[in-house]
Design brief:
Layout: H1 19-27, H2 36-44, E1 49-52, H3 61-70, E2 74-77, H4 81-93, E3 98-101, H5 107-119, E4 124-127, H6 137-143, E5 148-151, H7 170-178, E6 183-187, H8 192-201, E7 208-211, E8 219-225, H9 231-240, E9 247-250, H10 254-264, E10 270-273, H11 279-291, E11 296-299, E12 314-317, H12 324-331, E13 341-347, H13 349-362, H14 366-375, E14 381-382, H15 383-390, H16 394-406, E15 410-412, E16 417-420, H17 426-448, H18 453-460, E17 487-489, H19 492-506, H20 513-520, H21 528-540, E18 544-553, E19 556-565, H22 567-571, E20 580-582, E21 594-595, E22 602-603, H23 639-659, H24 663-666, H25 669-678, H26 683-687, H27 694-708
Parallel strand pairs: 1-6, 1-7, 2-4, 2-5, 3-4, 5-6, 8-13, 9-11, 9-12, 10-11, 12-13
Antiparallel strand pairs: 14-16, 15-16, 17-20, 18-19, 21-22
Helix pairs in contact: 2-3, 14-16, 23-25
The structure holds adenosine-5'-diphosphate, magnesium ion (MG) and zinc ion.
């Protein structure tokens, strides 16, 4: 069906038709989607526009409709040939006159496009940004001014964006000659810094900024610390409930995807999907998942690009994803049908180490690149010859050479010869490496933060206003409904501590959580880890605000956490102080009301499956009689236990020195005593010791178990 024809929409004629009717007639859409109309109106009125909306939200329409309404030719700049071809063919199918110019086309086609453009017979001209580098091209465009300029994937212009393209920089210089047309810049990801950068580099004038649509109301986001060895079992448990399927599970490598899929498939139909499989096999997995023959797909990031399965109920990440951007894309595949869906991100200290490892591998230090750069000559030489002369590890050499090539430090030819490039590669290379580092840091601080997950994501993508609203569904907002992490009520000692914390803050305490811990527990009666978890629980309950901060010392950035009282925290009475703490070792366990075997503490009851809605107050109002569980008793140590305790203390001191932290950060006294009395023989047993969480097991588990085993 073709709702429009060229005669109706000839280039040059502006339309005075009401927007909705134009939308209907030209595109066949019944109505505008959220925010589209306001964006279109701003562009039609001639304002510069910055539009940030998620993928699939319908950004293209926001330049296409104004293009028709304004008449004349709209110039569209797009960084990818595939994107350009896709949009151009869609517009053609609607009956518009469209041309494009990019390197994938023959000269004749490009020449014809230029002629049609200068004739004024085009409604849309798509160009790749690198065209602007071709001498005379920008001047040709300027001979007949466009009536609207759309810049798709505009984040590519910013070095701070995740997909920087140097060619996009040319835009800033070329635009003035093409004015006075309004410019509309479109992107799916732009942090506030990137937004400002886009506006500045394109010299947008008084731009109307529209940043919308990142909040996914039906997604409950859970982030949970799970040691790597336990993630398979956790995933199986989570997905055993049929209501949580269909599901997509993301695994960090091909091997792990295959192994996990095999494990899952003894419970329900599951398959692996990764780039190493042959295309027919991949197609079959994808089709079977769409048809429901497979209920779970375990995939590397290669999965889901083109997939549109509406009823995915759960998305699980069994490791930290590559970036917050990819994380958002991946969890976004859950609940496209609008029904409640859940996403679980499993992570631990070990993921950070893995990321560091890959970072260091993929971004060799500048001196390594420099060594190669200095060995290169103006005349091309065989790659292998250069490497042999340097006596460098083959893999390191290849990666470093790749980076040099990207940033112009060397030139590779098709014969695998390499010549020296320009000397200006260090700055852009360092910028790119730092950018990647920052991306990883952001991901880790997202996982470790104590705030609403959805709000944090919405803010990350640039919607600062909407990012102030809590979602009411995530592990921070609604711990009692979590499926991957079980929660328990604070015990008597924790209740007392919570009151002391409130008292200190009401009394004017200000400073870091570390300082507060020292003030309240000069003798470390509660370990720093336990204290931090209690504070996090108080923040989840709405009594405190925790803010990550950094101070600089001796040229190093040292992270710390600031603590503030909320309005609820100022007024809450001791009787109303309901706090849920992470039940250590309780993730993915079946949820029964009653005591938890491992700790003897009360656990939060199973949530109602259909329980929805946002918490009215910041207090959890679940159907639970508050009944603080007994505190674990101080163990009585035998002489042999005491000897072990001594050994553990010596080890702790060593470890603390190595890490440059106070001893209690490694392990509190009380916890050490518990370990000495229980003598855990395995990591799992160690995890049941009070004061020991997954992070501690990950970091120190093996050492502790070794000492206990004598
Ligand atoms: P984005 O560029 O934001 O990722 P697109 O512009 O490609 O998204 O649009 C995604 C899909 O939504 C397209 O198939 C488009 O036809 C459709 N779409 C856009 N606006 C509307 C609308 N008002 N009504 C129905 N479908 C729409
Ligand atoms: Mg788009
Ligand atoms: Zn939330």
């Amino acid at each position: 069906m073709c709702p429009a024809s060229m005669s109706l929409f000839s280039a040059g004629a502006a339309s005075t038709e009401p927007l909705v009717s134009l939308l209907h007639r030209a595109f066949g859409f019944a109505d505008f989607r959220a925010n589209q109309e306001a964006v279109c109106q701003a562009a039609i009125d001639g304002r510069d526009v910055l539009l940030v909306m998620p993928t699939g939200a319908g950004k293209s329409l926001c330049y296409q409709l104004p293009a028709l309404a304004r008449g004349g030719t709209t110039l569209v700049i797009s960084p990818l040939i595939a994107l350009m071809e896709d949009q151009a063919s869609k517009l053609r199918a609607l009956g518009f006159s469209v041309a494009r110019i990019h390197s994938g086309l023959d000269r004749e086609t490009s020449r014809k496009a230029c002629i049609d453009y200068l004739d004024g017979s085009l409604q849309f001209l798509f160009i790749a940004p690198e065209r602007l580098r071709v001498p005379g091209f920008a001047a040709m465009l300027a001979k007949r001014k466009p009536s609207l300029i759309a810049i798709d994937e505009a984040h590519c212009i910013s070095q701070w964006g995740h997909d920087f393209r140097p060619d996009y920089r040319m835009l800033g210089q070329s635009l003035p000659a093409l004015r006075p047309a309004p410019v509309i810049a479109l992107t799916a990801t732009a942090t506030p810094i990137v937004q400002d950068d886009i506006v500045n580099q394109l010299c947008l004038v008084n731009a109307a900024r529209f940043i919308h649509g990142f909040r996914r109301k039906n997604l409950a986001i859970e982030v949970v610390e799970v040691p790597a060895p336990r993630r398979t079992a956790s995933t199986v448990k989570l997905l055993k409930d049929p209501a949580r399927r269909p599901a997509i599970v993301y695994a960090p490598s091909r091997d792990k995807a295959v192994a996990l899929a095999a494990e899952l498939s003894s419970n329900f139909p599951a398959g692996a999907y990764h780039a190493g499989l042959d295309p027919q096999h991949r197609d079959r997995v994808q089709r079977n998942f769409l048809d429901g023959k497979l209920e779970v797909v375990v995939a590397t990031i290669a999965f889901g690009m083109g997939i549109d399965k509406a009823d995915v109920r759960t998305v699980i990440h069994t490791a930290l994803p590559a970036s917050l951007e990819s994380y958002y894309q991946e969890i976004g595949r859950a609940g496209r049908d609008g029904l409640p869906s859940r996403t679980v991100l499993m992570h631990s200290f070990a993921d950070r180490r893995t990321h560091d490892f890959f970072y260091e591998r993929d971004y060799p230090a500048v001196p390594v690149l420099d060594e190669i750069f200095k060995a290169l000559t103006a005349a091309p030489r065989a790659r292998d010859e250069v490497r042999a002369a340097l006596d460098m590890d083959a893999e390191v050499f290849e990666r470093a050479l790749d980076k040099l090539a990207i940033h112009g430090g060397c030139v590779l030819d098709f014969g695998d010869n390499v010549a020296r490039g320009h000397g200006e590669w260090k700055r852009p290379y360092s910028a790119q490496a730092n950018q990647r580092r920052a991306q990883l840091d952001l991901l880790v601080s997202f996982a470790e933060s104590n705030e609403c997950r959805m709000a944090a994501l919405v803010r990350h993508f640039g919607d600062v206003a909407d990012g102030k609203r809590a979602c009411g569904e995530c592990d921070f907002c609604a711990p009692e409904r979590c499926i991957a992490q079980r929660y328990r009520f604070a015990d008597a000692m924790e209740q007392r501590t919570a009151q002391s914390v409130l008292k200190a803050l009401r009394g004017g305490f200000s400073g870091s959580t570390g300082k507060l811990h020292k003030e309240l527990f000069p003798s470390e009666a509660m370990s720093r880890d336990e204290f931090e978890e209690l504070l996090a629980a108080m923040a989840r309950a709405g009594f405190l605000l925790l803010e990550e901060a950094v101070f600089e010392k001796d040229g190093r950035s040292i992270p710390y956490r600031k603590v503030f009282l909320t309005r609820d925290g100022e007024t809450v009475s001791a009787g109303e102080l309901e706090i849920l703490l992470k039940d250590v070792g309780g993730e993915a366990a079946p949820r029964k009301k009653g005591a938890n075997k491992s700790t003897g503490r009360k656990v939060a009851p199973a949530p109602e499956r259909s329980a929805g809605g946002v918490r009215g107050s910041q207090l959890w109002s679940g159907p639970v009689v508050k009944q603080p569980a007994p505190t674990a008793k101080e163990p009585v140590l035998s002489p042999a236990d005491e000897a072990l305790e001594k050994k553990l203390k010596a080890w702790r001191l060593d470890e603390a020195k190595k890490l440059g932290v106070p001893a209690f950060v490694v392990c509190g006294d009380r916890t050490l005593r518990q370990i000495a009395s229980q003598r855990p023989g395995s990591l799992a047993a160690l995890l049941t010791v009070q004061g020991i969480g997954p992070a501690k097991v990950e970091k120190f588990g093996e050492a502790i178990c070794r000492i206990c085993a004598g």
